[in-house]
Predict the structure.
Amino acid sequence: MEILDIVGELFSDEISIAVSRGNRYVYYRPSKRIDLKIRPGDPVKEGTIAYKAWQTEQKVSEFIDRNIFGVPYHGMAVPFKEDGKIAGCVLAIYPAFTEGKSVITLKSQDGWKPIPFQDVYYIEVKDRKTHVYGKSFSGTHKNTLQEFEYSLPREIFIRCHRSFIVNVRHIKEIYPDTHSTFLLEMANGQTVQVSQSYSSYFRKLLGF
């Protein structure tokens, strides 16, 4: 693992590096910013990016909340093969810079307005801008949808389209649409589309 030690030196301030083989970790190098307290020999826990990458045999990049390791983090896991079969994963683990935030701060006419997560209906990208629609205020934000997807709590917000993230607590009803897609009637009276590429993921998360 000498090469990983060298890579770890390059990113030691920000990124932790781990390697899993099968269902156990065989290497871990913490960074100065985040330490998941993994030890070689520890099992790969269900719900982690290493577990997901190993099971799906595909690269996984997402935000993981504090329920798994006690701290929230961003991570990327890339599976590797030996003799043509998935043998394990290499992981890069980043600190969750949004830890502790519970609002989305939007630009207002005279300044900025913090909107609590629970008051956000949905987020949409249109005309190259990210629009946040809230109960009492709506506006634009500098973040991309992907950045919001990483930072927003996954038990509330779900990506359902390349242009939409919705707050599931404000979905009033779900209607079937053509080609295995859905239309969401939101609590504010607007409709949001669930695209075909997200429909099975959406159904699984909402359990229908």
